[in-house]
## 1
Amino acid sequence: MSDIKITRTTSSRRGDVDFDNIPFGKVFADHMFVASYDGEKWTDMEIKPFGTLTLHPAMLAIHYGQSIFEGMKAGISKDGNPILFRPEMHSRRLNNSARRLCMPEFPEEKFIEALEELLRLDHHWIPTKKGSSLYIRPFMFATDEFIGVRPSDTYKLIIFTQPVGPYYSEPVKLLAEKKYIRAAMGGTGEAKAAGNYAGSLLPAKLAKEQGYDQVLWLDAREYKYIQEVGTMNIFFVIDGVIVTPATSGTILKGITRDTFIHVLTGEGYKVEEREVSIDEIEDAHRAGTLTEVFGAGTAAVVAKVSKIKHLDNVMEIDTEAFEIAPLLFDRIDALRNGTAEDPHGWRHPVLVGATV
Ligand code: COI
């Protein structure tokens, strides 16, 4: 018997949504899960109608940034059952972020139970169109009402869901950053901390002013080694080999990144996780051996990169000729919706008829 209290909405908003045209991030499903940490344990777990929160002006998260999140996705099988994708890995990453920001871990079995219950209630919000899915946003933040820099005693963990289409609808253009940095060794770059995203906004805005969609982050010491894009990890295809920066402490350990590495290796491609310098990418582009560049992320899925600028060098990449990025898009879509083999056991089906 579950100890999650459930209050159903009496007026679903599902009928108001045009599922053929879903903008990313703007549509919210009917319910949300909420749990509170009282300083000793997680308590008061409930699923209730999606709605606003009342916040105290001195709530610690607002002032000192103890706020972390996850981004996950669920698809739906042909027989109408939701499929969570790698929820255990998301739970582990959430707890790694929690440890780094001095926040309490949330038990994995409760995390998965909460997701299952939420999807049972809101399964009819999962889009069926190729490339669309239900985006799931778990997040945790500090709730002590106090001014002073110390870890909060109390927290909330909330999970809401959103039907979404692609995050990037067109190939993206990246500006390799030569002034600002995203993360340095020993910092919080590996955590999914809200503050990491706040710090990226000014450089991204300046990049936009120059006609670029996002920043390609380089290392904090030499501005030489590629890290990630901030909204996604990055892959290059050089001379037929797929290369991606190693997760050595400053970049997010992307779950889509990990999925792609397994899928590609399993299909016989050569994949290298290692240091990748921007000079190597420029050399490969000059030599004509750089055939694909793409981002990988839960929200972005696979985002083709059509242009990279580093200092005065502008590299154009012919996205029409890409072969590996479209293959990965098909593979992850099929994995999420249950139409491909699942040799790694990444799918976590939720039976809509069942109750816990
Ligand atoms: C995700 O991919 O889930 C993220 O959190 C990145 C953000 C750009 C939405």
## 2
Amino acid sequence: MSNDISVLLVEDNLADVALLMELLQDGDSEHWQVTHAKRLSLALEHLCKTKYDVVLLDLSLPDSQGLDTVIQVQATVPYLPIVVLTGLLDKTIARQAVAQGAQDYLVKGQLSSELLLKTVHYAIDRTQILKRLQESEDRFRGVFNQTYQFMGLLSPDGIVLDLNQATREMSGFQDQAIINTPIWEIPCWQTVEISKAWLKTAVLRASQGETMRAELQAHTSQGTLRWFDASIKPLKDEHSNITVLIVEGRDISKLKRAEAEIRQSLAKEQELNQMKNSFISMISHEFRNPISTISFATNLLEDCDLPSEERKSFFELIYTAINEVLHLLDEILLLGRTEAGKIEIDCKTIELESFCREIVEMFQLTTGNSHPILFSVKGRSTWAKVDTSLLKHILDNLLSNAIKYSPKGGTICFTLICKGNQAKFIVKDQGIGIPKADQAKLFEPFHRAANVNSIQGTGLGLAIVKRYVDLQQGQIQVESQEGVGSTFTVTLLQDLSQDLLKPHNPSVAKEQEAFSRNQTLLES
Ligand code: ADP
């Protein structure tokens, strides 16, 4: 069967042209369609118009010399097999032409029909193979670069050979910076030691045939930390040797964020559930006692013959029980109002020492000195701008707890320290103390420590205190040891920024004057 092969013969020497034509015709059964061009410009015109299977190209033409001739032909028709025709003395340039992409060269004067045909056939075959290879490479590159997934190729020992476009864009690295670098040395893992360590192990195991997968964190070119579902898979050749490791990554940061949010809201829901349960059990327990007392006392009071002394004591029992219930209701309502953000701050400039003394005196009156409170003051100016009603509530709660959780006769030290624009209120007792495990949860509503035993309480007081302190941008700290005692410290800003320094503020000036007068009287 005969095949037509179209040849463009670019040669200015007519004797060589005649010889080449003759050698071609002497050859096998192929039917050669030869077009002759004496100059490169003519050859390029032919190439633009007609499709050729091969070009026989002399490098010394009247309008082009040397390598440039090859380059121009290639530029006009890529993937056209070129066989360079050269003289005996021009072998070096012919070899350069082959390096440049020509398929082969033939030395004029050493030609035979057989050699010419073999060279032309090989040139055509090789070019077709190269073209198919290039198409396959283009298809691979297209997929490799167009995918949204991050992909890379590694040598079996983890050296980066190639990275796709998505990876380069995400990491912000240009090829030169990371090609030939071990994957764990790439800067995007530098602050994420766990990811680095995993990559080292994964490369080792993948190079032994395993497929590795994990969730890793890495930095993007913008410096943000993202989560990736990463895998490393070994690729084997026909002899089952691992030639390349394929690294893949999928950005799962959004998924991770959603997961964290779900976990958080689940935890919140659990916490709310727990709070609800504590609330219900606290309510049923705390309300039951006083209500049983009221019921018991009223039953007995139905007996009209009861002596008046006993009637009086039953009425007292009822009043105390009612007060307990009212106190509990007050605390629940207060907590509800603070949680709903309904408490507004109303700050006034006051003198803290006398404010604290009044509270201490009130406590000593109501407790009948069962727990002596030693009050002391440190610091020069005890003026501060505070919300008096919130502060009173805070101190009332800390002092009543100190009393409630201390044995009868236990001394309570209450210290006010005003220093460097800060007012510290320290309440220290020698009571039952708080177990370590309970200390972190002390400010959560309804939390009561394990050692309270039969001491009455709701677990709401400190939760309200904490919110009141927060409202004034203050801080509260606890130091406690079970069986030794507890110290609660509330720190508030004195916030005297301007008021006391302003001479034209008449109300403050008056208060200040009154205070200094009191001080002088006290001292004298
Ligand atoms: P309660 O009404 O139970 O006293 P609080 O919210 O005021 O509620 O206090 C929460 C818990 O903190 C108390 O139940 C108790 O376990 C612990 N607590 C608070 N103050 C003291 C203290 N001074 N000494 C020992 N335990 C304390």
